[in-house]
Amino acid sequence: MYDVVLLTLGSERDAPGGCGSGGACCGGATGADTVPTSETGTGQANSGQTDTGHANTDQANTDQASVGQAGGSEASTDTGQCATERPRVPVLACADALNARGARVETVTARSDAEIDAVLARLDGPPRPDGLTWPDPDSKTRLVIATASDGQLRAVLRRLVKRYAPAPSKRPADLPGNRTLPDLPPVAVLPLDPARGGTHRDLAAQLGLPRDPAAVAAAVLDGSPRRLDLLRNDGGSVTLDGALLGAADDAGRPLHWRARVEVDDTILTDGAEPLLACAVGNAGGYATLNDVTLLTAPDPADGQVEVAVAVPVVVRSAWGRKRVRLEVRRARGRAVSVLPREGKVPYLDDGVEGELTRKRSWWVEPGAWAVWSN
């Protein structure tokens, strides 16, 4: 039978440099000074985070409609509140279901990157001759990530990538040519927010993953890995769902901005014309903005990223009157880059707020991560 680790992230709101970015949550000790809290009765609450174009912080619970408010901050200065020391009900229910099936279950609350890393180390394979740390394809340990937001799931996946991606100078011969990292160990997702399965759908809802704790437990023990594409970026982070770039004023009116956007060899805009939005889609979380369809067929398992820009275009009627229509340009490919031409461009990336101040590139790692699915 399997050992199952139920991992939650243990802050309600992040302290400066908080959980998922190398620091401690709730203003406590840094990750280097702490060890994971590992017991049956540990806490979980929602986690929020601000991301910038220069940093790789990875947690928030922000809906895509907030893209107009994404700018205006570098990093959170709110110390927030620590989570209570009792697990959320879905975590307890999932643990009970796993125990009933004979699994050995441990709940862990991680409050820093170091504590997340200590959990992920249990997924390591045997030592390799080349000295690389590699995941164990036959591991008897399975990981369940309890998430209140896609940003929390991304925080754990980012640490998996950091753990297992070899340096370019140490790239092994057995790594596929279209990848920079090996197959990451499958994870199970336990959503903690029922509302995110409805109108404002989280990634678990988009993928059709179970939300009921007993069904999640069944997927962990009886399911099979479903491999999915991962977007890496040159800022050192990852994207599971997608990113939405753009801004709005206090009245909700979209603001114009400029950037050069390229998808492989296709230039969607050279930066000379104004933009209202740009969507980078691995999955479909940012497929629409208000009533505008940006992405038509994002697929997290097709080995490509879909990108769209919304460009206001002035046209004249037959009577010579001017009006503005919105032109959406789309392209698909293996990589995308966005180069801001002026100022800062606010964005949401897997629900995490940030500001883009320099060129950012994303590329697809086909089938790099996986979820346990029935």
Describe the structure.
There is one protein chain. Residues 12-84 have low confidence and may be disordered. A hairpin with a 4-residue loop joins β6 (224-233) and β7 (238-239). Helices cover 13% and strands 31% of the residues. Strands 7-6-19-16-9-10 form a six-stranded antiparallel β-sheet. The chain is an alpha+beta fold and 374 residues long. α1 (89-100) crosses α5 and α2 (113-120) packs across α3. It has helices at residues 89-100, 113-120, 150-164, 203-206, 213-222; strands at residues 3-9, 37-38, 104-110, 141-147, 187-191, 224-233, 238-239, 242-245, 259-263, 266-270, 277-281, 288-289, 292-293, 305-316, 322-333, 335-340, 345-349, 352-356, 360-373.
Structural class: alpha+beta
In the sheet with the most strands, the strands line up as 7-6-19-16-9-10
Shape: globular
What is the string of SSEs from the N terminus onward?
A: EEHEHEHEHHEEEEEEEEEEEEEE
- Could you give the distance between the termini? 18 Å
Average pLDDT for all residues: 82
Radius of gyration: 21 Å
SS element count, helices: 5
Q: Which parts are unreliable, with pLDDT below 50 for 5 consecutive residues or more?
A: 12-84
Helix content: 10-25%
- Tally of extended strands? 19
Strand content: 25-35%
Q: Tell me about the largest β-sheet.
A: 6 strands, antiparallel
